[in-house]
Design a protein that fits this description.
The structure is a single chain. By secondary structure, this protein is mainly beta. Helices cover 9% and strands 45% of the residues. The longest helix has 16 residues. The two termini are 38 Å apart.
Length: 664
């Protein structure tokens, strides 16, 4: 980042008015209310090594957050907040260190009044936001499949073609980069030669669930260190010489890995962070309450002027927080250029101009004085990443819970979102909501498929496609030409359900499970939908694979639409092995090309399990799981590569026997 930009970041806005010295505890944060909430609090699944919070520490988290560190409190209790925060319509920035420290101390006083306890065992840091530079990408933000001009080499299957997502496999058309257990392998694909191994020696580290990026001659490795002190790292390597990669920089931030995106040349990295001051009130300092980021082993708290408090709205909004940082891979001397902790999150959706962070909450409702029902809601925070500035723009919520990142889509200045509202099993329904850029509702379709649950969502242009399931698979088509008046214009019911929807050369492909009219599921199914007439969607072909289950994770799908080939990972129940299958999709028909396994067999070294030309059953024996289980399939030219954690096999892309195998 340019030095003048750093000076701009260090410019402190007008000093805030002093915080109120006296903060009264709202009724919604009474001891009884918090204890009731504690009973329903669950540990966040993203951070596997985190111990379960005891009741006292959870109360600490609730009150510290609720009293003013960017969590949401209902409008009735906002008057109890310091005036500058209670009346703010947008996040308040330009804070001083003493403001943040006194805020924590005031919260501490409120927390322990009457408890007789002089330490905080565990709590949460609050909501921080550091403005910085972020890439501007002019390619648009519409959700779309990868360009059809992808016949040269495979890339990670992403939600938006212009925005890359971290993955355990990357392909630049000549080399394959594989994130294995505690190392990265660089392989010359044409010669099936291991060029180098990059060890990730961070000690007690888990890198398997994280990922890598390739940008020009730079490799970025994202790794998380958990259990002892949760940190997420970006290690940046110069790979101009693939045989001798050179470590350029190492960055770290508090929290375990949550998600990331590559927008232009900038990585946006998010981690979930639990703050633990473990100190007496007299020991609370700015350094103990502010989140830390580091570079090359040197870590420090972010500046107070970079901290922004988000106006509170909802007393139930407290959990872990998210540290958000960006690194520009284009810089000759790269550094962290932004950092943020913005509350809890369940998933993210990112366009070229906006980053949305969503979280799920349950709201309990009382009937005749007792808790009878709960409502599920999805809360959304929108951050602008346009014109090199990261800035919180809006907060909002919708009824129900999203399925995953594909539940959201931004188009024409609106956000469309699909949710399942499980208010109660008898009243469960699915909802389509349209929000403006202030995250205010402008339209909603409710009552979709009562009693059923959303299994997959995809938006293509002016249309949205939603699959629900209970006994059969209804595919709903929603017309969004008028965002303020969306309409369901088509519906198709077939057995089974699609757990992932993929646009492919004008068709819609559903990857999921076959079934019968009674709702029983019994095989893998690939459905080919003709969506040329939105009012009459048709399943025009299908591919069934018995004794198998599809991996519907979108990154496990290989899109080679330029050659009419689609690949996907599936599990073979008969061998309990994770295999890879390729299909030709052309002229409204699905044709099997081949199904592959990286496992050794007594019959063939090729690892071929069966092909369209015949059936060959393999007997696996003593197959090492890291070799046998395929993690990704990719291609370069007319060669297919099936990649596991310790083996690569190559095949002709259009079918045939194994041509080479590399163990590493």
């Amino acid at each position: 980042m340019k030095r003048k930009n750093k000076e701009t970041l260090n410019f402190v806005r007008d000093t805030l008015a002093p915080l109120n010295e006296k903060i009264e505890t709202p009724d919604t944060l009474s001891e009884n209310s918090i204890v009731a909430l504690v009973a329903d609090k669950k540990q966040n699944k993203k951070c596997r090594g985190k111990r379960i919070l005891r009741t006292l520490s959870t109360v600490a988290a609730a009150l510290i957050i609720a009293v003013g560190l960017g969590v949401y409190i209902d409008s009735a209790t906002r008057t109890e907040m310091p005036e500058i925060y209670a009346q703010a319509e947008y996040p308040v920035s330009g804070n001083r260190e003493e403001d943040i420290v006194e805020y924590f101390k005031a919260a501490y006083d409120k927390l322990y009044r009457g408890y007789g306890v002089d330490y905080v065992e565990e709590s949460i840091a609050g909501s921080f936001f550091l403005k910085g530079d972020t890439a501007k990408n002019e390619s648009g933000s519409e959700n779309t499949q990868a360009s059809a001009d992808n016949a040269v080499f495979g890339t990670t299957n992403t939600q938006i073609a212009s925005i890359d997502e971290d993955d355990i496999i990357k392909n630049d058309g000549k080399y394959l980069y594989i994130l294995t257990r505690n190392s990265v392998k660089i392989v010359d694909a044409a010669n099936m030669k291991l060029m180098s191994t990059i060890p990730l020696d961070l000690g007690n580290i888990n890198v398997y669930d994280n990922g890598i990026y390739i940008y020009k001659n730079r490799l970025a490795v994202i790794a998380s260190k958990e259990y002892e002190e949760e940190k997420t790292y970006i290690r940046l390597y110069d790979i101009s010489d693939r045989a001798d990669p050179e470590l350029i920089e190492e960055f770290n931030q508090q929290g375990c890995f949550f998600s990331s995106r590559l927008v232009g040349s900038r990585i946006i990295l998010l981690s979930q962070y639990y703050f633990n001051p473990d100190c007496k009130k007299s020991e609370i300092t700015y350094d103990t309450v502010a989140p830390h980021v580091g570079q090359n082993g040197v870590s420090k708290a972010i500046g107070a002027h970079m901290i922004t408090v988000i106006p509170p709205e909802d007393e139930n909004y407290f959990s872990s927080n998210i540290v958000m940082t960006t690194v520009d891979l284009e810089d000759a001397d790269p550094e962290f250029i932004s950092s943020a902790v913005i509350g809890s999150g369940s998933d993210i959706y990112c366009t070229n101009e906006n980053l949305y962070i969503i979280s799920h909450r349950n709201r309990y409702e009382e009937i005749d004085g007792s808790v009878e029902k709960f409502r599920s809601v999805t809360q959304i925070n929108r951050f602008s990443i346009k014109d090199g500035v990261i800035e919180h723009k809006a907060s909002g919520e919708v009824s129900g819970r999203t399925l995953n990142q594909f539940s959201l889509d931004e188009r024409k200045g609106y956000l469309r979102i699909a949710t399942t509202d499980n208010f109660s099993s008898a009243e469960q329904q699915n909802i389509i909501t349209v929000l403006d850029m202030n995250l205010k509702e402008v339209a909603k379709i409710g009552g979709i498929a009562p009693g059923e649950t959303i299994q997959s969502v995809r938006y293509i242009g002016d249309y949205g496609y939603v699959v629900t399931f209970l006994q059969t698979d209804p595919l709903f088509v929603i017309d969004f030409k008028d965002m303020k008046n969306p309409k369901i214009v088509g519906e198709l019911k077939i057995p089974g359900f699609s757990s992932y929807l993929h646009p492919f050369n004008g068709y819609l492909v559903g990857i999921g499970t076959d079934g019968d009219d009674n709702g029983s599921v019994n095989a893998l199914k690939i459905s080919l939908f003709d969506i040329s007439d939105p009012t009459k969607p048709q399943e025009i072909d299908r591919f069934i694979l018995k004794n198998a289950w599809a991996n519907s994770f979108h990154k496990s799908v290989m899109d080679c639409s330029g050659k009419n080939i689609l690949g996907f990972i599936y599990t073979d129940y008969s061998t309990d092995c994770q295999n890879f299958c390729t299909l030709q999709i052309k002229d409204g028909k699905i044709k099997l090309i081949g199904s592959y396994s990286n496992a050794d067999s007594s019959d063939s070294e090729s690892g071929m399990s069966y092909s369209a030309s015949g059936s060959q059953r393999l007997i696996y024996y003593n197959a090492d799981a890291d070799k046998a289980n395929i993690q990704r399939g990719t291609y370069i030219g007319d060669t297919l590569y099936t990649v596991s954690l310790s083996r690569i096999c190559s095949y002709p892309l259009f079918g045939g026997e194994c041509t080479a195998k590399l163990d590493y």
